[in-house]
Amino acid sequence: MRRVSIFGATGSVGANGVDLLRHGGEAEAYHVVALTGGRNIARLAEMARVLRPEVAVTAHPELLDDLRSALEGSGVQAAAGEAALQEAAARPADWVLSAIVGAAGLAPGLTALAQGGVLALANKESLVCAGDLLRRTAAAAGTTILPVDSEHSALFQALGGDNLDSVKDVTITASGGAFRDWPLERLAAATVAEASTHPNWAMGQRITIDSASMFNKAMEVIEAKEFFGLKPDQIKVLVHPESIIHAMVTHHDGGTLAHLGAPDMRHAIGYALHWPQRQALPVPALDLAALGSLTFRAPDENRWPALRLAREVMTAGGAAGAVFNAAKEQALDDFIGGRIRFTDMAPRVEATLAALSREDGFGADPDSLESVLFWDGLARRKAAA
Ligand code: NDP
To answer: What predicted TM-score, i.e. pTM, was given to this entire model?
Structure first.
């Protein structure tokens, strides 16, 4: 029986993963090792009562009693805090979905890889902060990282194991988020509520706002470089408001292969769950005749300066990814907290990168979790409003 765990089960991606385990038609074939969440104890307990993991973990120690009460009589062990997350990640599992949001997903992901499980990675922050460390940890354990981000799953599928030598470039698409069609002069006054709506995807609040600012796409460009070993100038972004084509691979011979699908995360999660096989998934089929047309436009870097920053991060290498992500997370906290405007986020991240690039050791890839956390902490303090 396959042993599986979901980290960040109570979130948008995690809940889709739980849904696949529940309704995938072969629920009996899974032994659920761990389900983890944060503050949503009721949801975590409800999922745990259905999937009966060995352990359910909340990241917050002060919520342990609530989780224990919610699980009473279920036979599921309750645990809480960072050490409990690490203990759960170290339990033998064949497949682990990494769906915690933010840099907090890195430590459990590294531990899950080290114990030898396949890591289905939605937590793009891990690759942005510590791509080299993640790849080395996977190689040492003889295991695999699979993409769950829809664009990277699409690239993985479109590449189909092709040798990168034949690849000219790849394109990941972006819906353009909530402010795609807003006049530029309105952006400074954008509210958190306005930034928290997405035209096509139902996602967690943070990634939804990151879609409006294009920080999400900037992270994905870096993620593509780290995941596939592409050069920065081989990764292109195309605004595609319908979110039907997720990514394309263009070969030197002029052929372009595109991956299309309804905007439903259960495809990418299910693909990673069943890889290297394919199985039927509860995902709506595409009806291109009903859609009629697909549209595209070039991204405007005045509207979305995060895309330029992503290129600068890739060129800088070393600790730039960890600094970029942490500064972005801090700026996002400050925007959500009402301390800065929507348009202040990118300049704040840029200023943090510029300041920390003068620190000793910035040019070296972080070679341990501690080193990533060092740069992460420095960047958050520097970026704080
Ligand atoms: P959500 O905010 O919906 O969920 C995040 C999950 O992480 C929840 O389970 C949350 O718990 C938990 N969590 C939050 N903070 C912590 C913490 N400090 N320690 C441990 N657990 C924590 O996020 P999404 O599901 O939208 O995104 C998850 C990841 O997947 C992100 O990296 C995102 O970029 C990526 N992704 C998301 C996509 C989407 O469609 N949503 C698509 C592709 C990638 P709780 O809610 O209980 O507090």
So the answer is: 0.97
